[in-house]
Amino acid sequence: xxxxxxxxxxxxxxxxxxxxxxxxxxxxxxxxxxxxxxxxxxxxxxxxxxxxxxxxxxxxxxxxxxxxxxxxxxxxxxxxxxxxxxxxxxxx
Length: 92
Prior knowledge:
This protein is 16% helix and 27% strand. The protein is α+β, with helices and mostly antiparallel strands.
């Protein structure tokens, strides 16, 4: 089951500069484990223990996984995952 994972610029050092990589998994948690075997160090930048890091947004086919089942969200062949760092800031 191949799933495309789009990688933000800040994490591309873990993927040798690749903007997108393939990974496998029945759930998002499984996918992150597979991603870690292919790109060592990337998982800890996305997941803190068993939850997504606070300032990382993950989308499954344009749906925020926090509104689905979080890292327990089920995946299907051909799905697309987008990882985006949250953007904060502005004027006070």
